[in-house]
Amino acid sequence: MTKRVVLIGHPVSHSLSGAMQQAAFDHAGLDVKYELWDRPPIQLGDAIVEIRTDDFLGANVTIPHKERVVPQVDRLTEEAHATGAVNTLTKEGRKLVGHNTDVAGFKVALDKLVGRQKMPRQAVVLGAGGGARAVVYGLIREGFQRVIIFNRHLHRAEGLVKHFGRTASHMELRAMPWHESIIESELAKTKVLVNATSIGLMSSDTPVPGEILTGDLLVLDLIYDNTKLLQAAQAAGAATSDGELMLLHQGAAAFRLWSGQEAPLEVMQEALEKARKQGLRSAEGEPTGAAAAGDLAPEAG
Ligand code: NDP
């Protein structure tokens, strides 16, 4: 009987994960169908009940449910517990296990960006949503000593710092208000800049002006595109990476969990590139709230 894996989010129609995961299951010869389930928060509980039944191998969870799903599972892995966010569900009988494979995906992306250099110890993170949680936890685990978080709504960044209080007690993890001059002065003291906001996902906006970027920065944008931020960083001489590797490797880790097999990385990467060329652009979710309501340009394609 065909098994089912679903992506639960709201909205999900532009997600790239469907193409990537279906290609992997097909390549492995597994009789699995990957479905996109658009479920508003009020329907999340019913969706979770449904995937406990025998038809389902597991699920991905994306915006806006990654944090909301945490109390609905039976067990959390270390990464899911530490970040307070779940992006993958697996089954143990009818029990659900919550994982956060974004953390593993971020590590691959960071390692590639840093290359042969010594791992830096200071980072600036823009954003305080689910993606930022995986980034901050990844930086803590990597031994970073000073991480500054800027977010449009400062209270969310403060909440994130509070969440990591104990895990980050040996280091400096701070939330700061989103002012260009403060970001500029922090960038002067840092080596790694990560954009974990959705600014640039659906428009050509940039979270920070190009003039404040310097050539010795390593800049990672979680968005799977050569965003305006990355273009400005490249013009300044900085090393850059987009969100492709993180997306690919969080997906590969999820595939391994569901199938017990190694993930066919090349097949998944090809499927991603093809889907992106067809106009899909969300790394693993869409902006919510004001952004979704229209303060960003409409989706291209
Ligand atoms: P969330 O909805 O949880 O968070 C969105 C973040 O973007 C918040 O910090 C929010 O700020 C900020 N933001 C959105 N619009 C604006 C705006 N107009 N001005 C200023 N700040 C804004 O989303 P996620 O954290 O899950 O995802 C964030 C981005 O990272 C997305 O583009 C997503 O596709 C990408 N991502 C990529 C992954 C990958 O594998 N490559 C994995 C995870 C995420 P505020 O809190 O103030 O609203």
What would you say this structure looks like, in words?
There is one protein chain. The chain is an alpha/beta fold and 301 residues long. The chain has helices at 17-27, 44-51, 78-83, 102-114, 130-141, 154-163, 180-187, 228-235, 244-259, 265-277, 289-295; strands at 3-9, 32-38, 56-61, 75-76, 88-92, 95-99, 122-126, 146-151, 172-177, 192-195, 218-221, 239-241. Strands 2-1-3-5-6-4 form a six-stranded mixed sheet, with helices on both faces. A hairpin with a 2-residue loop joins strand 5 and strand 6. The longest helix has 16 residues, at 244-259. The two termini are 36 Å apart. Mean pLDDT is 92; it is low at 286-301. NADPH dihydro-nicotinamide-adenine-dinucleotide phosphate is lined by residues 63, 102, 105, 127-132, 151-153, 156, 196-199, 201, 222-224, 243, 246-247, 250, 282-285, 287-288, 291, 295.
Helix and strand layout, with pairings?
Elements: E1 3-9, H1 17-27, E2 32-38, H2 44-51, E3 56-61, E4 75-76, H3 78-83, E5 88-92, E6 95-99, H4 102-114, E7 122-126, H5 130-141, E8 146-151, H6 154-163, E9 172-177, H7 180-187, E10 192-195, E11 218-221, H8 228-235, E12 239-241, H9 244-259, H10 265-277, H11 289-295
Parallel strand pairs: 1-2, 1-3, 4-6, 7-8, 7-10, 8-9, 10-11, 11-12
Antiparallel strand pairs: 3-5, 5-6
Helix pairs in contact: 1-9, 1-10, 4-5, 4-9, 9-10
Q: What proportion strand?
A: 15-25%
Rg calculated over all Cα atoms: 19 Å
What is the helix fraction of residues, given as a range?
25-40%
Calculate the mean pLDDT score and round it: 92
How far apart the termini lie comes to 36 Å
Order of helices and strands: EHEHEEHEEHEHEHEHEEHEHHH
Low-confidence stretches: 286-301
Based on DSSP secondary structure assignment, what is the total number of beta strands? 12
